[in-house]
Every structure is written in structure tokens, then in C-alpha cells.
Automatic annotation (TrEMBL):
It is found in: Cytoplasm. Signal peptide: none annotated. Pyruvate binds at T49, V208. This is 4-hydroxy-tetrahydrodipicolinate synthase. The gene is dapA. Catalyzes the condensation of (S)-aspartate-beta-semialdehyde [(S)-ASA] and pyruvate to 4-hydroxy-tetrahydrodipicolinate (HTPA). It comes from Sphaerochaeta pleomorpha (strain ATCC BAA-1885 / DSM 22778 / Grapes).
Length: 303
């Protein structure tokens, strides 16, 4: 069986900003150190959780370059470089490769709703422009378009460096179909924390996690137990996390997780418009209550 390059927990990192709305490079460094020391398998800068749509091109490039620098080869960096414009995604992906990223994460083109043929041509053009592995990111709820399984498999056959998918379709049946049809070296990672164990139980390989920003060690232990076949122990940990997983989406991601990170002083509670602080303070109270439960278990990583 071909070895899978991508297994385990890859943290979809928040992008910390200062109170003056600049990239907080020192906070980013400290977050990366904590993630690595907590045992995550990889880092994903500039994804949805990293507020990539509101980063300037210079900030986007800088965040990826700094993540590579701070990680210093200790864990892989899977840089978010997708766009709804193919030329822009190519430029971002080439830059990520140039600064040393180990892989790129390519979200579905959003808003313009391409056909399956358009999706194939889009992802093939990006994959052909770089030598590093490409992981596709299928999230219809954010982008308005679904990568059908046949399209995904055709892309993996046409492009040897398309080596996995972050599956956030929300459909366990689609996930199972991808796992069943993919070649042996193709990684299938959950894009939803609450489906991570279901995906692993179906033969998948791990998760690109939002929750692991604040409890990286706990999430890593749970996922590695599952990958090692101890699903009963993993499920017991999942019960502890279920309320927090739900709280992470009380309002649009990354509002809850960045609020959680700010509570424990990892970053400022600072967002780029149109993202903003909690609209409903009751949601903050629910989030804090779930954090307190995890903190009592020693699951929260403190700064």
C-alpha cells in the first residue's frame, strides 16, 4: 500500500492581529510553538479560520512565510492558497512553494460556481504549476459548489501531486464514497471536527481542525487513538469535546475559536471586517462554559 503523506491533526490556524489591525507576528510565533509542542501533525495557515479572504496579498504571503520559518521543519506546513480566480491561486501556490511550504490547500472556487469541468480545469492548472502536494478543500456550504467524487478521483489520476482532500461537504456518504474510490496513497481528512472519528472509522486519515487551536494536545490524542484502532478510548474523549465542537459554530467561524484564543491570551479579540466579535453575548457565555469544562480536564492549552 502506498504511504499516505497526510495523516493525523492539522490545525487550521487563526491569524492573530494586533489592536491596530496589523499581523501580530509574535503571537503567531507563540501559537506555532504551542501547537508543535502539543503534538499536532501539521499547520494550516491562511485558511477559512485564518480569515484569508480579508488578508492582503502581502499579508497572505507573509503569514505563510512566517509559519514556515517558525515551524522550522518540525511539522509540515499546508498553506491555504485557494482562490476563485485560477491565476491568483497559481500565484499564491507558487509563492508558498518558493518559501518552503510542504503542501497547499486549495478551496473550491467560491461565488462563481464553476461546473465540474471548470473545477477540473481550475485545480489541474494549479497542480500543474507547482511540484509540492496539493490538497483540495471541498466545502459547498462556503463556496456554493461541490467537488463530485468522480471529479476528485479524475483529478488525482491526472495530477500525481493531488494527494488528498479536506472533506467538509457534511455528507458522510460522500466521504465514504471518496475513501472507497481513492487510490491507496490519497489522504482523506475531515473538515469538520465533529465528524473526525466517523471519517477515521470509515477509513479516513484525520482532520484539519478548528478546535485544535485551543486544545491541540487533547485533539491530537483523540485522533491518534482512533488511527491506532482504539476507537472506544477516542469516542470517550469525543464526548468531552462534543459541546465545544458545537460551540465553535454558534456564530460564523472563526468568531468563536478566535474568541476562545483571546480568552486565554493567545491573541487579541480582533477580527477583520466583515468578520466581527460575537453578535449575541449569550453565545459567548455558552462558549465560555464549554471552555471551562475542557479547562477542568486539562485540555486547554494556556499561554
Amino acid at each position: 500500500m502506498a504511504e499516505k503523506l497526510f495523516r493525523g491533526v492539522y490545525t487550521a490556524m487563526v491569524t492573530p492581529f494586533t489592536k491596530k489591525d496589523n499581523l501580530d507576528e509574535e503571537a503567531l510565533r507563540q501559537i506555532i510553538e504551542a501547537q508543535i509542542h502539543s503534538g499536532v501533525d501539521g499547520l494550516v495557515p491562511c485558511g477559512t479560520t485564518g480569515e484569508s479572504p480579508t488578508l492582503s496579498h502581502d499579508e497572505h504571503d507573509r503569514t505563510i512565510a512566517l509559519t514556515v520559518e517558525f515551524a522550522d521543519g518540525r511539522v509540515p506546513v499546508m498553506a491555504g492558497t485557494g482562490s476563485n480566480a485560477t491565476t491568483e491561486a497559481v500565484r499564491l501556490s507558487r509563492h508558498a512553494q518558493e518559501v518552503g511550504a510542504n503542501a497547499v490547500l486549495l478551496v473550491n472556487p467560491y461565488y462563481n460556481k464553476p461546473t465540474q469541468k471548470g473545477l477540473f480545469l481550475h485545480f489541474k492548472a494549479i497542480a500543474d504549476s507547482v511540484d509540492i502536494p496539493c490538497i483540495l478543500y471541498n466545502i459547498k456550504g462556503r463556496t456554493g459548489v461541490n467537488i463530485e467524487t468522480d471529479t476528485l478521483i479524475a483529478l488525482s489520476e491526472a495530477c500525481p501531486n493531488i494527494l488528498g482532500v479536506k472533506e467538509a461537504s457534511g455528507s458522510i456518504e460522500q466521504i465514504k464514497s471518496v475513501i472507497a474510490k481513492a487510490h491507496p496513497g490519497f489522504s482523506v481528512l475531515s473538515g469538520d471536527d465533529n465528524l473526525s472519528l466517523d471519517l477515521i472509522q470509515a477509513g479516513g486519515d484525520g482532520v484539519v481542525s478548528v478546535a485544535s487551536n485551543i486544545c491541540p494536545g487533547y485533539i491530537s490524542t483523540m485522533v491518534h487513538l482512533a488511527l491506532a484502532g482504539d476507537m472506544a478510548a477516542a469516542r470517550n474523549m469525543e464526548k468531552d469535546l462534543a459541546g465545544f465542537f458545537k460551540a465553535c459554530f454558534l456564530e460564523t467561524n472563526p468568531i468563536p475559536i478566535k474568541t476562545a484564543m483571546a480568552r486565554y491570551h493567545w491573541c487579541e479579540e480582533s477580527f477583520r471586517l466583515p468578520m466581527c466579535t460575537f453578535e449575541h453575548e449569550e453565545n459567548r457565555r455558552i462558549l465560555y462554559a464549554e471552555l471551562d469544562k475542557l479547562d477542568s480536564l486539562g485540555a486547554i492549552r494556556r499561554r
